[in-house]
User: Fold this.
Amino acid sequence: MDTINRLSRSIRIWILIICVSISLILISNITAINKDKGVGFGNGLDYGIDFAGGIQMWLKLENPVTSDVMAIEKGILENRLNAMGLKDIPIYPYGDQFILIKIAKASPEEIKVIEGILKKQARFEQRIDGELAVKGDEISVDLSTEGSGAYPVGNGFGWYVNVKLNPDAACRFGRVAQGKFFGEDNPRNRPVDLFIDRPENTTILMSGGLHGILGNTTFVPGQQREDIYFGDTALEVIENRSRIPIIVLDENDINKTLSEFRNYKDKGFTKTIIAENEIKIPDKIRNMIEDLGIDTQRMEIGNKSPDSWIKEVTGLKTTPRLNFDTRGECVYNARITGSAATKEEADAEIKQNQIWLTSGNLPEKASIESKSTVPPSLGAQFLRYCFITGIIAIITVSIVIFLRYRKLFIVIPVIITGLSEIIIILGLASLINWEIDLPAIAGIIAAVGTGVDDQIVITDETIERGIKKRRVISLIERIRRAFFIIFTAAATTIAVMLPLMTFVAGMLRGFAFTTMAGVLIGVFITRPAYAKIIEEILKG
Amino acid sequence: MFDNLYTRLTEKVNYKTLIFVPIILSIIMILLIFTRGIPLGIDFQGGTLIEILTEKDIDQLTLSKLESDLMNLGLEDLKIYMGKDFETHMNRITIVTTTIVETENVEGIIAKYIGELRESDTALVELTEKPPADLKDKLGTRLKERVDIEFDRDSNILKISAIDLDKEELESALSFYLNKEVVVELQKKNINIGKVEPTLGEKFRSEGIKAAIIAYILMASVIFFAFRDFIPSIAVILAATCDAIIAMGCMSIFGILLEPASLVAILMLVGYSVDSDILLTTRILKRKTGGVNERIDSAMKTGLTMTGTTLVVMLVILIISSILTQISTLRSIASVLLLGLLADLATTWFMNAGILKWYVEEKGGKFPILKRKRRTKFRSRRYGHH
Assistant:
């Protein structure tokens, strides 16, 4: 009883208890670290592909690039995957030539599409009033520091990005842009629409109601931040400038609508986008269209503003206004300019425009170097196995320690300390959203292994003192030697792990991180508590 | 049970002879590594790993036919293993090659022996009419997964594919959306192909080796800084080096692949090795009473418990991961550590202990740091051992 009383007055024991409790709260998701999961042990943790399942791909760029160009490559891939509706696919550039992509969820078909996106260039187009001016690899962006810049203008910032066109594009642009310029900064100047992956052979199906609304939608100054309309209506932006035909659903005579689809199909339009929900355009009609051999896809306008929906459907990215007269002559160099409120915003716009402009002509071509797939159920099974292995390992350690000391009161604190260490490591991982994968589990084994080693050192040192010198000796004196061993060992472990933190985008980082975290937690939290427990137990 | 081990040991064998046991072993291992090499895993070399699950019983003859067919495709360093899958009790065939294979060619050959191959889970359902067009989206939301749907009009068979499908979950979801009981015929994915291009493998390998070398240098610096005494520091570093060399030699002998997991194991080994060496050095040099042998005996008692716990844990992980769970990462970590820690027993207690004994008895070695700082305290207090 005395022992427990004395322990309860020790600050080290309290620190341990508090850390374990906080960690349990974090791991069990009681604080809702992962909002999509409920409360449950382990739900507060993020799992890597080994346990959560998913697909991991390594991309290699043909040649090494600078970090600026790498950021652009990353941006292009992100933009295109997002445009496909695959949000939140993390893309990690690694070094100057490699990119790691992790996909949590995708169907087998979608994986093929993703692979296609990663390998192929985006379909880049610049159109003026629907006329193709520049496409694909005809444009190149000057990515050097002189190629773009931001400068103060009035109380904001202006920015520019320089582009070069190849001869074909230069002359086509000059021709298409003729007659679209009405004077410097004249509001009647036409926009140069930039599309990425504009849907081909696709029509849009909408109800008469929506058609009416879009026919009256245009830019209202003060209500919208951005003008994509340039005096046109929403319908004109879709049909004329994006060249996507609209089919209006005739609710009274479905056959009329279907025959319109048939006509478009004969012209090669094999896909359609359904602009509204089931109530406006029922599934029955969707099935009828599919029966014609036309692929359908719903992209509902819902509560979105018409301009953001148009951008989503057509692939329209940006609409800079033409601000010079080509007079029908070839234009080899052009400059895209804009303005922003702050320097940061201007820089962000430059980056965004560089990403768009290079989409059709990646600065370096990418190839898929490695691909691995783990089905989620297999991952869950792996996690369960690791858990079982851990439990059996703890039991074996306890048996060995019991065989050595023949005293339960030593075995129990060793196990409690070891478990606390695991819990606090996981709690920390949960707190900073560190992904738990197989290497991380190996790291936990390593950390707990050195932890048990250290506890044996502490126990032996304490027991020897206890036997030889039963007089009261200050605690620091008694286990100073033990702690010299522990600190030196901890410092070496950290020294060994530190370089691994930089190793290949995380393959060994998980291991190095959990080992280092475990060692530090051991030295500062669990070992002092264990020393206190053993000291008090041996006194008592 | 570990009492006076070192004293008893050195009564039988001269301690100076013991010092050379790990050193000679390491030299043999270095020769082995240079002549035989260490096999590289595909992460470090580049290549293709194919895993196939099948209910068919595959005999040795079929396996060798498959092997020769694959050889004819020009696959280099081809290795084929058979095993059992713990969870499904199916046969598992693992094919490893350093060549980057064309998926279709290889699948064609394997299919001849195994039957139909599926790269994703596929479910077939017989229906009476075309399912609603939005079934794909609804199923996706319900199953929390992205699925593909294909309906064959002539046979009225609906085909659903995804990375991971569960029969019961799918049946209940389909019954709900189609408003009737449906029976699903689920075929699980049975082939998994992983590829690493050689250039990426090369990158991983050079990065890994670079990280290991920096880690080694940092480790050595910390040891020198902690002990600030040349011979004991060198002894610790030498022991860690021998451990790593012997472990790599064992990898060469037993054909354990050098891959990220085993590289991790070697670094863990260095960590554990240094732990017991630091214990030994501190005990010998810091103690003022008792003979060197007695100090080593006491350190050995603690050290063997330390290594013992780690050894049994690794043995347990090795057994579980090779027989039951087949998590290859844990298996290669455990096997490398197990072999390395056995070597560590010799390097620590034969070599390191011997060097320190020679250093203290014949060179009058002391522990300068602790002695300088705490001389008075050490004089006033005598520490013994039992």
